[in-house]
Write a structure and sequence with these properties.
This protein is mostly helical. Helix content is 76%, strand content 2%. The chain starts with a helix and ends with a helix.
């Protein structure tokens, strides 16, 4: 009997690995990948630079690198939810609630900043976990549950902010310094560029060696070196630009660290394989023995926590807790960034790096429009058009993949 259970357990684990890690059975990344997004970003930068020579100035690009962080962090959490084929409409409200809770605890009640930050982030994580719990236990669609959360947390945010609708905090405090501090040493900029490029090359070569040893398809070595050269050129160009202004922004450094950590979590751990397996099909994940409810609750927890962190960065940029994050635009921009960057609305495909690419496009449009003195309404229309194109492209790619699978 013991032997039979052990064999059954091994069989289930084997089935799960086959379903949960499709990357082990498929050739390396097919399709266009991030190329269309990078091409679109290059076109946007070229157009705005031709219209205003200050767009690609070190100062403007440094400001842009800080402006993307708040929305980008929220978008990373959105990616986790999109990967399982769901949608979280509460992230903007949770971001606003995080700033309001921090301001109320620190400014109004004298709580130390570090403790107020922890409470705000924990509140966001708890709210996200609650959304996931209600969704899994009741069967109510996630967008309905999180829509109710949006209204609830917006109301709590307004209550905490009081009749004035804002809580100002110290410009020299912990939260304010998140977006105002820069690492001025040139070594930091160029060292980070070199480290990132070397790490990418090492990981790709290791994956190629592992696939080759297992007899699976792998990228040609020439392609890996070519991609590494492109990444290195972009990284050192960014380092050069940042070094010419005030150095490496602390906010950007934190954002990149979150991106790397979340990417490793999704692509290099059993948990990440479970998330992708669930996005590929809930029924197959259940048959493989996956704890579907736990995974669903966890991704909403991650989304809520990152929404809270992103809200603190938005508040840091304003040096005040306001109703701005809960107004709806942060929610729209975060979802748009994830989708524009390449994460599928249908689940199972995407990367946390999508958040970086998508938010760069959205914030570049906003920055260019501001330099040109164009009304925000035009920015909204352009962003909406870009989002529509990304969604249509995603749907067509999914349909084409389904057609190839049938044949």
């Amino acid at each position: 009997m013991v032997v039979r259970r052990s064999a059954t357990g091994r069989l289930r684990r084997g089935r799960f690995r086959q379903r949960a890690d499709p990357a082990r059975r498929r050739p390396p990344e097919g399709g266009p990948g991030p190329a269309p997004v990078l091409l679109a970003l290059g076109v946007i930068w070229a157009v705005f630079q031709s219209l205003n020579a200050n767009f690609l100035s070190p100062r403007n690009l440094s400001v842009l690198s800080v402006d993307i962080v708040g929305t980008g962090l929220v978008a990373v959490g959105v990616v986790f939810v999109l990967l399982i084929g769901e949608l979280d409409l509460s992230v903007g409200s949770l971001a606003g609630l995080s700033g309001a809770l921090f301001g109320a605890l620190n400014v109004n009640h004298g709580m130390p900043e570090w403790l107020a930050v922890l409470v705000a982030v924990a509140a966001g994580a708890g709210a996200g976990a609650f959304h996931g719990f209600v969704f899994t236990r009741t069967g109510v669609p996630a967008f309905v549950v999180t829509l109710a959360g949006l209204l609830t947390w917006d109301g709590l945010m307004l209550y905490l902010l009081g009749p004035e609708g804002t809580i100002d905090f110290s410009e020299n405090g912990l939260v304010a310094r998140l977006t105002s501090r820069h690492v001025t040493a040139a070594l930091a900029c160029y060292g980070l560029a070199a480290l990132g490029t070397a790490a990418y090359l090492a990981v790709r070569l290791h994956d190629r060696a592992r696939r080759s040893a297992a007899g699976m398809p792998s990228r040609p070595a020439g392609e890996i070196w070519f991609r590494t050269a492109l990444l290195g050129a972009a990284a050192f160009a960014a380092a050069y630009v940042l070094d010419r202004f005030e150095g490496l922004p602390l906010a950007l450094l934190i954002f990149l660290a979150v991106l790397v950590a979340s990417d490793l979590l999704l692509r290099r751990t059993a948990y990440g394989r479970r998330v992708l397996a669930l996005g590929g099909g809930a029924e197959a994940a259940l048959r493989a023995g996956l704890a579907v409810d736990r995974v669903r609750i966890s991704v909403f927890l991650v989304s809520g926590a990152l929404a809270a962190v992103g809200g603190l960065f938005v508040a840091s940029r304003l040096t005040a807790a306001t109703t701005l994050p809960g107004s709806g635009m942060l929610l729209v921009n975060a979802i748009a960034a994830a989708v524009i960057g390449g994460t599928s609305l249908f689940g199972g495909r995407g990367s946390t790096w999508s958040a970086l690419l998508g938010v760069l496009i959205i914030q570049s449009i906003a920055s260019g429009m501001a330099l040109l003195g164009v009304q925000p309404a035009v920015q909204f229309m352009i962003t909406g058009g870009v989002l529509l194109i990304a969604v249509v492209f995603d749907a067509l790619a999914r349909r084409a993949a389904a057609g190839r699978a049938r044949t």
